[in-house]
Amino acid sequence: MSRFKTTILRIKGTIKGITYYTLGGVYISRRSSAPTSTQIKNDPRYANVLANNQEFGGASLLSKAICSGLEDTFKDFKEPHFTSCLTGFCRKLIQKGPGVPGKRQADLYNAPNALVGFQLNRKHQFRERYMAREIVDSYHSRTLVKIRILESNPSHLGSYPSSATHFRLTAGLSLVSPYVWSPEHSQYEATYTRINTFGTTVTSSFMACKLSHTELLLSLSAPIYTEVPEGVALTVWLGIRFYRKEAETYISFPKLGAMACIAVF
């Protein structure tokens, strides 16, 4: 800690980790220290820090639940920072929920349509790659989701490699439970643990880029369940990848795929 009796410019506050203040007529500067975990948990001065930490934990769990159901699918489309971006999105979603800060419900239904349009890779926007419109509905007590595309023609394809000859669509379904704060365990816990993070994926056949395709159907089912509770969010994702056909082999362009959330039920 440094002490100064005189100074031309008396700064009060913290700059680059150094705090400046006056104590007993003496001007003092000292290096700020981060609060300990015990202080954060018990000192009322750090109530906001504690609330933020708790809700960030809930956001991390919600983000992980979304990804877990489609882990193998996501890795083919996502950018390196996708997980942190999704966690940040979930943190904002928690802030829209009921309850007091630090204990608000982590639930996709806090803003049901907010996730729609969320990209796995911000540099490769799904609608820039594929512009055909789909119809998405759930059936059989929410255990089946169908994605129908009435017509897909060459004008619906956006930017793609000039050497690409075919494309494939990939649809994914991820079931996500809400998370609520547990006073007993001092952490966020899933309401529907048995069904949380369940996911499934289906991929279309190879389709020629220069031809029109009608009545495309992608069906995603959760056959091990007789019904999916209303409190569980069904997140539906759709992606596209391009290929070049050589003889009987389809060679992919792995870095040009795009995928986004298209519905939440």
* Share of helix, binned: 10-25%
What structural class do helix, strand and pairing data support?
Answer: alpha+beta
Order of helix and strand elements from N to C terminus: EEEEHHHHHEEEEEEEEEEE
Number of helices: 5
- The rough form would be described as globular
How would you state the average pLDDT, rounded? Answer: 87
Pick out the low-confidence regions.
1-6
Strand tally, please? 15
Taking the alpha carbons of the first and last residues, their distance comes to: 58 Å
Question: Short description, anyone?
Answer:
It contains five helices and 15 strands. It has helices spanning 37-42, 47-68, 71-74, 82-95, 126-129, and strands spanning 2-4, 13-15, 18-23, 26-31, 135-139, 144-152, 166-176, 179-182, 187-190, 199-203, 207-208, 213-221, 233-246, 249-252, 258-264. Strands 7, 10, 11, 13, 14 and 15 form a six-stranded antiparallel β-sheet that branches. The chain has a four-stranded antiparallel β-sheet with strand order 1-4-3-2, with no helix packed on it. A three-stranded antiparallel β-sheet has the order 5-6-12, with no helix packed on it.
